[in-house]
Amino acid sequence: MRAADEQEHAVSTTQPAGEHLLDVRGLTKHFPIRHGIVFQRQIGAVHAVDGIDFTVAAGQSLGLVGESGCGKSTTGRLVTRLLKPTAGRVVFDGEDITHTPENRMKEARRNLQMIFQDPYSSLNPRHTVGTIVETPMRLNGINPPQGHKKRAQELLETVGLSPEHYNRYPNEFSGGQRQRIGIARALALRPKLIVADEPVSALDVSIQAQIVNLLQDLQREFGIAFVFIAHDLAVVRHFCERVAVMYLGKIVEVADRRTLYTGPRHPYTHALLSAVPEADPDGTRRRERIRLAGDVPSPVDPPSGCRFRTRCWKAQERCAREEPPLVRLAGSTDGHLTACHFPEEPSVAAREEDIVLDPALSASGDSESTSS
Amino acid sequence: MSLLTSPQPADADPAAAPFLDVRDLRVHFPTEDGIVKSVDGVSFSLEKGSTLGIVGESGSGKSVTSLALLGLHKGTRAQVSGEIRLEGRELVSLPEHDMRALRGRTVSMIFQDPLSALHPYFTVGAQIAEGYRVHHRVSKKEARDRAVEMLKRVGIPQPERRARDYPHQFSGGMRQRAMIAMALVCDPELLIADEPTTALDVTVQAQILDLIRDLQEEFGSAVVLITHDLGVVADIADDILVMYGGRRIEYGTVHDVLKEPQHPYTWGLLESMPQITGDVERRLNPIAGSPPSLINPPGGCAFHPRCTYKGWVPGGRCATDRPELLPVPGTGRHLAACHLTPETRTEIRGRTAAGAAQ
């Protein structure tokens, strides 16, 4: 079709050339599925992350969004080397850390910290808040001039806790406060990059806003780069300048936030945006309505070609055969990359006909625009 | 204390009694530390075919309210008082035996976490059929056919085959569909959905919400939707009840509450939500502090320790007098419990709007 010919093979990556703080190339993680009791043989693999490329510049924040099982958390853990990649390369701060042995990772992790999703399981209940915040400094042999305790108390103040909390235990704190402790711990080494894996999804709306504001202030003050992983598109839009959309282990679209949220090209991004509920009773009518059928397929045996084709309303025979490359499409702005053979128009405004693929739902225009 | 129960002031006429009428519902849990007042005087009403969204943070009493509607506090230590009238029938004092006849048939519920709400030992089809057989004198075969029919209606592919599957063989979205099928198998008149989509992904959430709305139109049931997400409510509900610390603080139509919110807590909720459209540079305006203790709730207005605008109320009344839920002038059925005068509210909202525009 015409759209297919419009694709031009753009310059290799996401960003104009230059020094990137984090450069990820062809990152892949397959978790083996084993069978048998004594002699275990591998009978398959979960394709959690399947060849993704992205870069993050110093002080920038990149959002990774997608539904559960799309590999966004695995990506975060691969970047911080909490997991070992199956293939690909992670270059952080000019150094290839893909195969750095565990005992030497300490140096890289001085500049590369993580904030975890669950503030209840990510803090050791038997350590005081002081110990939790100080440990990274002690492990890395950092002796701040004012002493560990004073520095830890300063960090607690930075994240909006009181210095008197130094001797308390995590169970004395609420979810939001615990997340602040986790942030203080990540800040203790003054990292250049923080990977935040769903840092606010376990929190109530009002607390969520407090933490998002805190992270934003810290980013501005210390110039920390972020890889911000979340399933909430509104939070990601608020926090990240660049956003990458993942589906079944692949990045399907990446762009700056303005472009991604107002002019997405990939059908999946359209579907995702149209599904976000808005606290504005008139808002839903202005935006397009797309309802996909079913759930995300299993990453054990992902569909051939384009992975979204099984739920896509534009899928054709070519989508099953050829995997679409992540490239800049004709008509897209610089740095807006999409992996689709038959991209959509860059608009999120309401369509003449809703796209409703779910068999249980009646389209309000009572016709399905499933095209072939 | 005023007992304004419904947004419609004309509830004096018994003939026009609403389908569901909850008055001054209180659910208290005695504990070692004191009495936890999870729900403390909540009233609302609901007509058939319409949807009420109950919104609030964790611990605001929204789920406890929903369990009380189903009579699930019976036989526990919870102290339930007040009135729940369903088509004129009082449910709070109803004995458990009679409640069982209603549960599943007239009042039914969709739970938040379908994996823990479904029994892992029985097939999905058997679990749906069981509910049908309890309330209808039918053969196993008929109940089974009904289960398959329901699975088909909620959009599960190959319903004949999937009815023989166990819950773990279903994906998250499909389990929630199965839960909906189970809740609707007896055509209930009142459907309670407690955070039905919180555990689901956003594209699946959109499917499920649309499905609940479609089914409601088809069966004409009344729906109580409990959620912490104002976006979900805006999408599906007709009325919104905002709860804080076990009490109502704002109640009205979706349009009134979201477009013309009157209570500082509702303002706070709306301003702390990042939006999918609009200005990205707008800073979120979170509500300071954390939710109140339900054992020793703050005196006066439960929200006053976190309220930015308590200084606007003369004489420090917020800390001493509990504000009553009063109609907002100029609207028929929009109620808010706040000491701020309408003029002050307009002024504050004008300022924040000006601040946001800058």
Instruction: Please state the structural category of chain A.
Output: alpha/beta
- Helix content, binned percent of chain B: 25-40%
Q: How many strands appear in the DSSP assignment of chain A?
A: 14
- Give me the count of strands of chain B: 12
Secondary structure class of chain B reads alpha/beta
Helices and strands of chain A, in N-to-C order? HEEEHEEHEHHHEHEHEEHHHEHEEE
Shape of chain B: globular
Domain ABC transporter (chain B): 22-270
GO molecular function (chain B): ATP binding; ATP hydrolysis activity
Main location (chain B): membrane
Membrane topology (chain B): Peripheral membrane protein
Structure report:
The complex is a heterodimer of chains A (372) and B (358). By secondary structure, chain A is an alpha/beta fold. Chain A is built from twelve helices and 14 strands. In chain A, α4 (129-139) packs across α5, α5 (148-158) crosses α6 and α6 (175-187) packs parallel to α7. In chain A, a hairpin with a 5-residue loop joins β1 (22-35) and β2 (41-56). Chain A has two domains: 22-247, Rossmann fold (3-Layer(aba) Sandwich); 263-278 and 286-371, no CATH class. The model of chain A is unreliable at 1-17 and 364-372 (pLDDT under 50). Chain B has a domain at 115-187. Helices cover 34% and strands 20% of the residues of chain B. Chain B is built from 13 helices and twelve strands. In chain B, β1 (20-31) and β2 (34-46) form a beta hairpin. In chain B, α4 packs parallel to α7 (172-184) and α7 (172-184) runs parallel beside α8 (202-219). The chains are: A alpha/beta (372), B alpha/beta (358). At the A-B interface, α7, α8, α9 and α10 of A face α7, α8, α9, α10 and α11 of B.
